[in-house]
Amino acid sequence: MTATDEHFLLDLLNSTPVVAGVQQDRLEETEAWKSCPDGRSTLAEVRSALQDVVRGDQPADVLAPFLRDVRQVPTLTADGTVEWRLEAPPELTAAARAVLAWSELRTTRPGRLRSCGNPDCRLFLIDRSKANTARWCSMTTCGNRMKARRHYQARTKA
Ligand SMILES: [Zn+2]
Fold it and tell me: Which parts of the chain fold into alpha helices (H)?
């Protein structure tokens, strides 16, 4: 799993941000969209399935169709190491890459990929903190907003 694959996955998951209360669709700005012209019709489906699975709204097996006829082939590189090359039907290349990145993350860093703690936010984060306590997609936006809200609620209750 490379940082590139993590970025690829997060970029896709985070392409439905809420701006001024309205959910946007920025699929066409994602690397997945740009990298896989044959798979564009599948991308919205895999994005929605991955979002549901990460939120815990769907079981992981909804991702199985995106791995149909997908293989990873070991290839020996010039410096003597093995790299895994993805072989997939053209329409599934980007979708499979996203699902494999999700799976790798789940195996190597369980629980680190999650939805933002702000219920009004549709973004996801990968928690890279040692203590595994990150809750917001971004401290400067959601973190501060939620802190301000809690502060306000505490004050109005008192
Ligand atoms: Zn957020």
Answer: 3-13, 31-35, 40-55, 93-108, 144-157
